[in-house]
Amino acid sequence: MVLKRPFQFDGGEDGFGMGGPGAQESKRFRNAVRDVMGRLSVNDFVSKMEPLLRTVVRDEVERTVLRVLQSSSRPSFNQNKTSGGLMLHFVNKLPSTIFTGGRLEAEDGYPIRVVLMDASTRTVVSSGPLASLKIEIVPLDADFGFDDQEHWSRGEFAANVIREREGRRPLVTGELTVTLRDGVGQLGDIVFTDNSSWQRSRKFRLGARPVQKVSDEMRIREGRSQAFVVKDHRGELYKKHHPPHLHDEIWRLERIAKDGAFHKRLAFHGVVSVQEFLQLYMTDPAKLRTVRESPFVSCPSFFYLVILSFMSTDLMNLS
């Protein structure tokens, strides 16, 4: 979440106040969470938090809706108008780290989507024979296109498709063939079976290409995702949760390392879960000041950001 203004310390009574235009929202946030201490039900808690959460995410939602409306208002691409300006494109961003054996999904938790679009106008090919094109998902060398090159030959793309290591299972397994619907394809159950540590860049990409050549006159440019690391699933034991849940251990939050100094100080003071962190913040902020020795928690906005950025998403999931 991108904040328009930095949080400022206002020297409030509890040492964790937010000055400036956000002070009123901070006060409403604290008042709403204090109700939790009164043992409100989850539904009551959500109803208390909803106005604040709507305010916090309003700008982002408005920007997203505007982009969708602008995209849908553009004229559809006429396939007869061009003979070679088509491309496959990964719509949503993949996580920076993926674990072997886990189903691939976008960073936001939604299925990965690939679209067929006009490379010049960036509009989706939503009608005609190509709108139901069948595509193949393949693993790519992360160095392919590292210089942001957007043009390559069919042979160059094929040369960068990665094979599994000798004696290993196929590098990527699952539903590797996808049929577009109205120019949009949604990836299903796809998993990596091996980590990326043996690659020079220590990363992979995903690629998308047509299963069959369309024609000699028309070439559809293959798509590629951004690069990402693939780790063995054992590392998922230490994975951060996005969003975290109230019952998660506190180290599931970003910037709190498992068994790190800050984690140990919190545990020493009885703060083990995300919920306990929230409760202590609201009931005894002075106690938190005794454990904020790390430089990155030297200002009160750290605690506010942890609670607001992560907990708001969690509460919305509970509703």
UniProtKB/TrEMBL annotation:
Any single GO molecular-function term of the entry would be:
calmodulin binding
Residues of the Calmodulin binding protein central domain: 246-291
Q: Which residues form the Calmodulin binding protein-like N-terminal domain?
A: 87-233
The entry's cellular-component GO terms read:
nucleus
Q: Which GO terms describe its biological process?
A: regulation of salicylic acid biosynthetic process
Q: Which domain of life is it from?
A: Eukaryota
Q: What Pfam families does UniProt report for this protein, alphabetically? A: Calmod_bind_M, Calmodulin_bind
InterPro entries from the entry? Answer: Calmod_bind_M, Calmodulin_bind_N, CBP60
Question: Which PANTHER family does this one have?
Answer: CALMODULIN-BINDING PROTEIN 60 G (PTHR31713:SF43), OS02G0177800 PROTEIN (PTHR31713)
This chain belongs to the protein called: Uncharacterized protein
This chain's source organism reads Populus deltoides (Eastern poplar)
